[in-house]
Every structure is written in C-alpha cells, then in structure tokens.
Amino acid sequence: MENDKSEKKTKSKKRLKEDSIAYKKYREKANARKRKFLDKMTPEQKEMKRLKDREYYQRKKAENKVKTVNDMTERQKRKQRKTWRINSQKYRQKKKMIANILADSPPDTENEIEDDNRESRKKAGRKQVKKDKAQAYRTVKKQKHKIQKMEKIINQLQKKNTEKQKT
C-alpha cells in the first residue's frame, strides 16, 4: 500500500515546452483562474496574502535562493537592468497599442472574434511547421558531416591495413 503511493509520487507529468501553443493556453487558463480567485478576495484576505508572499520572499532571500541586485556582479547588474528596460518598453508599447486599438475600433461581433482566433491558430501552426523543418535540416546537416568524418577515418584505416598486408 505504501509502495503504491511512493510510485505515484515519482511519476511526473509531461512538461510542456515554454514556446509551445499548448503551454501558452495552459498559462492563460491558469492566469484566468488566479485572477478570478484574487477578484473574489476581500481586502483583509488580500492583505493576508501579501503578508504571506512577503514572508515567503524573505525566507527565500535568507536561504540565498533569490539573488538581489546587491549580490550581483557589475556585469550581471547591467544585464538584469537591460532586461528590465526591455520588458518595461514592451509593456508600455503593448498597453499603448491596446488603447489605440480599442479607441479606433467599433465593438466586435462574435464572427470576427472566431476569425481572428482561427487566423492566430493557423499562424502558430505554420510557425511550428517552420521550426520543425529547420530542426530537421540542422540534424540532417550534422549527420552528413558525421558520416563524412567517419568515411574519412574508414579510408585512412583501410589504407593502413593494405600497407600492413603488403609488408
């Protein structure tokens, strides 16, 4: 009975690739669940959650699992600040773009939403096919290179073997 439980714990779920469509859909659903959960909270519950989160962060920081800017080298600081800058720019651009689209466009109908969804799925599928083809091309190229190396080694060994047989 106890062995069955330990066996179940060792079995891990299939991990999704972060750039895959399935992963993105999974994250969207998870984020929606989290938003819904947070929206239902009372202000007291929200404050309790913030306290717990803060304690969790402090504990992680004490265990040195979270690296603060003070602990980083100058190069790491520059790199981190650059990523922060880029992320902030993306966030602002996205926010501005959404505001412009909402201001200019009339209310959507259900058919337009379905068409947009279908187009995005098609685009994502084409992107995946392109990625798979590129991966296949790279593996074939590596294998051809490997075969050429092996053929070269075989030829050298055959020459050595024929020279030994002559003497």
TrEMBL record:
Region Disordered: start-end pairs: 1-20, 70-149
Compositional bias annotation for Acidic residues: 107-117
Bias-annotated ranges (Basic residues): 120-130
UniProt name for this protein: (diamondback moth) hypothetical protein
